[in-house]
Structure formats: structure tokens, C-alpha cells
Amino acid sequence: MYARITPYKMKAGSRDATVEIMERVKADILGLQGMQHFINVMDDTGKGYIVALTSLPETPPELQEKINAIWANFAEYLESRPTPETYSVLADWKP
């Protein structure tokens, strides 16, 4: 299992719009190839992280195009384009 971790920063005052868009594209996000679990966190300043657990060690070009299309929905609210990093999951514990 792999974790694709994406830090991002939204513009001030865009939280409600961001949540609305996220709900609208939920099926697209959860339907991405390899997707096993999706977590999105954001603080009051608009700084956040996406943690996507996936079965894929790398992102194939056709999948990256789909991810880019999803991010395009948020373009007007993002301070800059997010850059993801992929890690091997060493532990995935649940109580």
C-alpha cells in the first residue's frame, strides 16, 4: 500500500466553496484507479493535506490526467498548484 500525500493552500474565505466542490467530485475521487482511502484535512488558514491510500506505487499518465482534472475544479481557490509525494505505507493501524 502507498500513501499519496498532497499539501495544499486555499485562498482565504474559500472553505465553503472548497467543501461544496469536494462533495461534487467525491465519486470521481473515490473512483480513481487504486484508491483505497481518502482523507482531506484543512486548518482555519486554508492550509491542508490530502492523504490518499492507494494500491499503486506510481501514478500512470492517464491517472494523472484524471487527478489534474479533479484539481482543476479548485483552481480559482488554490493559492498555488499542489505537488503530491508518494510514500510506502509502513503501518496502517486501527484500534
Task: Give a description of the structure.
- The protein has 95 residues and is of the alpha+beta class.
- It is 28% helix and 29% strand.
- It is built from 3 helices and 4 strands; from the N terminus they run βααββαβ.
- Strands 2-3-1-4 form a 4-stranded antiparallel sheet, with no helix packed on it.
- Strand 2 (35-42) and strand 3 (47-54) form a beta hairpin.
- The longest helix is centred in the C-terminal third of the chain and has 12 residues, at 61-72.
- It is globular and about 35 Å long.
- 5% of the residues are buried.
Distance between the termini: 19 Å
- Which strand-content bin applies to the residues? 25-35%
Classification by helices and strands: alpha+beta
Tell me how many strands there are: 4
The general outline is: globular
Radius of gyration: 13 Å
- Across the major sheet, the strand order is 2-3-1-4
- Mean pLDDT comes to 96
Helix count?
A: 3
Stretches where pLDDT is under 50 for at least 5 consecutive residues are: none
Percentage of helical residues?
Answer: 25-40%
